[in-house]
Amino acid sequence: MPTPAERQALLFLAAVAVIGGGVRAAGTRTLAREVTRAERGVAPSAELATRALDAQIAAVDSARRRGRVPKATVRTGSARKKTEPTLLPRAVPGPALSIDVNAASAAELERLPRVGPALAARIVAWREAHGPFESMESLRHVRGIGPATARMLAPLVTFSGRHSPFQSEAFASPIPRALYVS
Q1: Using CA atoms, how far apart are residues 79 and 61, in angstroms rounded to an integer?
Q2: Handedness of CA 139, 141, 144, 148 (dihedral sign)
Q3: Among residues 36, 65, 81, 122, which is most buried (max CB within 10 A)?
Q4: In sequence order, what are the residues at sequence separation of 6 or more whose Cβ sits closer than 8 angstroms to the Cβ of residue 23?
Q5: Residue 158 main-chain phi, psi, to 5 deg
Q6: What is the pLDDT of residue 31?
Q7: Mean pLDDT per 10-residue interval, the chain, length 182 residues
């Protein structure tokens, strides 16, 4: 058996649902009336046209912020063809954003596109464990940096010429490794 407070809460939720349904039904009726008027050739009300245009602009702006463009219908002869969403070209910042991957902190690395806190931490951890990066190819060893991300980061990053443990004197020697005396 529900307590009086629970009954009040249920009654409130039921009232909200009924009122919401009524508002939705009234809006649907108004829309149906406007569609019927449009089918008869009567121009829609200025308020409805403005609301519809504002909703469309908001949807396009939202898609652009996410880096996607909405599906477009392209007419080819008498048939219609739906095109898939494509990535919008992103403006590549100039050399002012050039970040040295071997000297940057995790916070600085997060300023790069597609690099969040987790990926920045993995880059720093890999650098500390294996030494500085030599090129974009060595940066690709970090989990989360694939070909697409590497292409996007290439004009934005630099690699300082620090000494790498992989280039130690023993391995850089012109003497073949097989001739070393152990």
Answers
A1: 29
A2: positive
A3: 122
A4: none
A5: -130, 165
A6: 77
A7: 91 94 87 79 74 81 67 54 50 60 92 93 94 92 93 90 46 47 46
Give me 163's structure tokens.
Answer: 């000494």
- 177 vs 170, 181, 182, CA distance in Å? 8, 9, 11
Q: What angle do CA 39, 41, 44 make, to 5 degrees?
A: 85
Q: Residue 98 has what pLDDT? A: 84
Both tokens of 82, joined, read 């739906």
Complete domains list, the chain, with CATH: 4-82 (no CATH), 95-169 (1.10.150.320)
Q: How far apart are CA 155 and CA 171, in angstroms?
A: 31
- The alpha carbon of residue 155 and the mean position of all alpha carbons in its chain are separated, in whole angstroms, by 19
Q: How far apart are CA 108 and CA 130, in angstroms?
A: 20
**What whole-number distance in Å separates Cα of residue 162 and Cα of residue 6?**
68
CB contact at 8 A, 124 and 109:
yes
Structure-block tokens of residue 160: 């300082």
